[in-house]
Amino acid sequence: MFKIVNWMLVSRSQLLTDLLECRWPQEFLIKLTHASPGNLADKLDSHLVSVVVFDLATVDLQQSYQLQRLIEREYSSIKTVFLNFPRQIDAKFLIHPATSVGVFYLDSGISEISSGLNDILKGRSVMPFELHQSMLHDDTEDETDSLTIREREVLQALLSGSTNLDIANQLFVSESTIKTHLYRAFRKIGVSSRGQAIAWAQTHMHEVRC
């Protein structure tokens, strides 16, 4: 069981930051600091942090994914929690079993979040049941590290210089769907940026073409 003493909130909402700074330190007996997506890495170097809480209502999925990957690689002792997790978008690629300990949907109430955070303080993980089950299914499939046909198509399109919107139009899906395919592919091939994905595809796409 890990001991949580210092938490860091990553959010662009000053209102949320002020609210939680008033409530959380007294409720959970923690020290809460604030970071923006742009200065999180610097703050992690200068602060002793046990848990990083991402506010997905104000931090976009791409930045959250990149920051989560940074924590996985360089700060593996830090745990992550996601507030305002979207229901309508497949954002499971953000969650890493070794570091992610809490997920709260956008419509989660304060009492539900407080109860969940108390469980996290006791060393438990808190994740919606249906999301947990869905990830178990994905883990079984991902053990082969195989890219889906659609993920291969999206990676192939990156090589031609297409934007996400271009790819969405080519495949007759939404831009958010393309982002989901990209992030899932990123995790499977072990990269964290579009440039790295392009470099990987230039070397390996001959191995994954249908």
UniProtKB/TrEMBL annotation:
Phylogenetic placement of the source organism: Bacteria, Pseudomonadati, Pseudomonadota, Gammaproteobacteria, Alteromonadales
Pfam families noted in UniProt: GerE, VpsT-like_REC
UniProt entry tagged with the keyword Repeat: no
SUPFAM superfamilies recorded: C-terminal effector domain of the bipartite response regulators
Biological processes per GO annotation: regulation of DNA-templated transcription
Span of domain HTH luxR-type: 140-205
Keyword terms: DNA-binding, Transcription, Transcription regulation
Name this polypeptide is given: Transcriptional regulator, LuxR family
Alphabetized PANTHER family for the sequence: DNA-BINDING TRANSCRIPTIONAL ACTIVATOR DEVR_DOSR (PTHR44688)
CDD domains to which the protein is assigned, alphabetical: LuxR_C_like
An example Gene Ontology molecular-function term: DNA binding
InterPro entries attached to this UniProt entry: CsgD-like_REC, Sig_transdc_resp-reg_C-effctor, Tscrpt_reg_LuxR_C, WH-like_DNA-bd_sf
Key word Transcription present: yes
